[in-house]
Amino acid sequence: MKIALIGYGKMGREVEQVALSKGHVITARIDPLSGERTTPHLSPESVSDAEVCIEFSQPQAAVENIEKSARLKKNVVVGTTGWYEHLSRVEATVRQENTALVYAPNFSLGVNLFYRIAAAAAALFSRFEDYDVSGLEMHHRKKLDSPSGTAKKLTQIVLDHFPRKREVVTDCLNRPIRPDEFHLVSVRSGHFPGTHSVVFDSTADTVELTHTARSRAGFAFGALLAAEWVVGRKGVYTFDQVLENLMQA
Ligand SMILES: NC(=O)c1ccc[n+]([C@@H]2O[C@H](COP(=O)([O-])OP(=O)(O)OC[C@H]3O[C@@H](n4cnc5c(N)ncnc54)[C@H](OP(=O)(O)O)[C@@H]3O)[C@@H](O)[C@H]2O)c1
Predict the structure, then answer these.
(1) Predicted TM-score (pTM) of this structure
(2) Which residues are catalytic?
(3) Residue 154 has pLDDT above 80, yes or no
(4) Is 38 in the pocket of ligand 1 (CB under 6 A)?
(5) Best substitution site from 6, 29, 30, 31 to test ligand 1's pocket, by max atoms within 8 Å of Cβ?
(6) 78, 152, 215, 249: which has the fewest C-beta neighbours closer than 10 Å?
(7) Ligand 1 mean position, distance from CA 82 (Å)
(8) Would you say the CB of residue 134 lies under 6 angstroms from ligand 1?
(9) From the CB of 193, is ligand 1 less than 6 Å away?
(10) Nearest C-alpha neighbor of 148 from the set 170, 115, 118
């Protein structure tokens, strides 16, 4: 597969490493500042050889990059987060140009399968009054946001399947927690690339489900899986829809 990388920061480089190890070809590294880029601009020339674009840049650049890719008739996989308020406009452009877009806030295959396991577990444990549920996430000390986007999504999934929990509490509690509150705790320390747990607890036992990321390579593997899938397709898809389609094949 011939790939144009849009954004050549930490993730762009990670995608390149994994892509080369899988025998893919990088036709362009498009980045306004990176010294190792091949071109600063997304243009007809810079993407002409590519079958698909993979975009990991910055929130303020993503919308323009997706729309430009669509107008240049290139399908695009987008890992950049923080632009979703413009999703309907972007969707309209992609459909109008008859191209395809796959987007996800987390392209880790393990995390996306973990979401499904957490949903099924929450549905099971919620049927038994003695079980309570809580969440825990741990990230490196440089992480800017808290709780993580992945933790928020995981929490929403658990709440959707555990009807007794209706409110999320992320602060320190100086009172007993109410039965309808879901306590989500964030720890910032050391170098954790990302650890997310859902914990079910009863008088008899504890069941802990934990996803532990080892590196950024997992995001790159998922983005490449999506890129392989999207070549030759049309439409707008989440990574979860890609996985659903792959599992049914
Ligand atoms: N979906 C997922 O699985 C996943 C996983 C990890 C990260 N992310 C997200 O992916 C994004 C990138 O993360 P990262 O860690 O790679 O960040 P990063 O190291 O800061 O890299 C972003 C790169 O994009 C470049 N860029 C800025 N404007 C651009 C434009 N108009 N066109 C092309 N490139 C442009 C930046 O260039 P300069 O800084 O040199 O200007 C930088 O080299 C973030 O939004 C992050 O939250 C998503």
Answers:
(1) 0.89
(2) 139, 143
(3) yes
(4) no
(5) 31
(6) 249
(7) 11
(8) no
(9) no
(10) 170
Q: How far is CA 113 from CA 17, 71, 117, 127, in A?
A: 24, 33, 6, 22
The alpha carbon torsion through 18, 21, 26, 32 (nearest 10 deg) reads 40
Asked whether 110 lines ligand 1 (CB < 6 A), one says no
Q: Are 233 and 75 in contact (CB under 8 A)?
A: yes
CA dihedral (234, 240, 243, 244) positive or negative: negative
Taking the C-alpha atoms of residue 66 and residue 130, their distance in angstroms, rounded to an integer, is 48
For residue 56, what are its two tokens? 């990991």
Q: Which atom of ligand 1 is nearest to the CA of 79?
A: 1
Start-to-end C-alpha separation, the chain: 21
Residue 14, ligand 1, Cβ within 6 A: no
Nearest to 106 by CA among 18, 244, 238: 238
Q: How many residues does the chain have?
A: 249
HSE of 122 in the Cβ direction (CA atoms, 13 Å)? 24
Query: Given the CA of residue 104, which atom of ligand 1 is nearest to it?
Result: 1
